[in-house]
Amino acid sequence: MSIHENRVGGYDVGYRDATGRMRSKSFRRKRDAERFDIKIKDAKQAGMLASLDGGRMTLDDYVTGTWIPVHVAPLAAKTSKRYAQLYDRHITEALGAYQLREITPEIVGRWQADELRQPGAPVDQIRKAHTMLGSILQRALEAGRTVSNPQRLVRKAAPPATTEVRPLAPASAEAIRHALARGAGRDDRSTRGDIRWLRDRDAVMVAILAYAGLRPQEARGLCWAHVLDRTLVVHAPKTRRYRQQPRSVRLLAPLAQDLRECRLASGRPDPASPVIPLLDGGEITETAFESWRAGPWTAALKAADLAY
Q1: I want to staple 96 with a disulfide (CB 3.0 to 4.6 A). Which of 60, 247, 251, 264 is the partner?
Q2: Exposed, middle or buried, 164 (CB in 10 Å: 0-12/13-18/19+)?
Q3: In whole angstroms, how far apart are CA 287 and each of 85, 126, 268, 294?
Q4: Are the C-beta atoms of 219 and 249 separated by less than 8 Å?
């Protein structure tokens, strides 16, 4: 911010508005220019510059120009994609054209109510979109782009009724393993040796998921170095914090025996090798796991007469 005498005998005050753009305002008297200069400085310090200069940045402008490249880009690719999908599906059409300073609690409340009235409304997704909108507006508030976060004043929709999580009984898990060992969901395009290897691998994977309680991404990242005598050392890939703080899972005797036999049958692979590898020895990717779940897993459930 600065004050300069202009060509017509007045004074110009130069400053950056809430969007970061350079602006200027002219005054006939120097003392008026000085007062405005002080007003701008006070507003900037108080985080109220957006209301003072009448900034016209819309929610879409802020999201595409600042929130995504600055606050979302450093996140994991899967998380960034999920945020983009939430914004595109639930927010941009209804709220994207509003200027940040125009968004009020009433507008946010009406948006949420309209979303919930849609046939088959995904309540979980709408709740997540509500939270994400609050995060966006909070970042804009902290940067002085708006004067409040109206999302804070709008109660989030009640969560949908949840069904009880019922783990598979051991008999069901064994029925699935038996179906996989018989080749459920596998065709005969691979060599006989590969088919046998894949069947054994699939059965071991189900044992790890069922009897150690690992998440799919944890099972995919499990290496032989993580398999100890009585425990599994699980490095959850969900966040960096979890990567730095692995957890231990008790290794049940039957699963421990399965893993010992699997390692011997695999020729005692290197400790860094995945316990459940691809045919080429590499770690199972998310795409490969989803393909397995859509193929052999679904076929094994059908063969075992179990619901998906």
Answers
A1: 60
A2: exposed
A3: 19, 27, 27, 11
A4: no
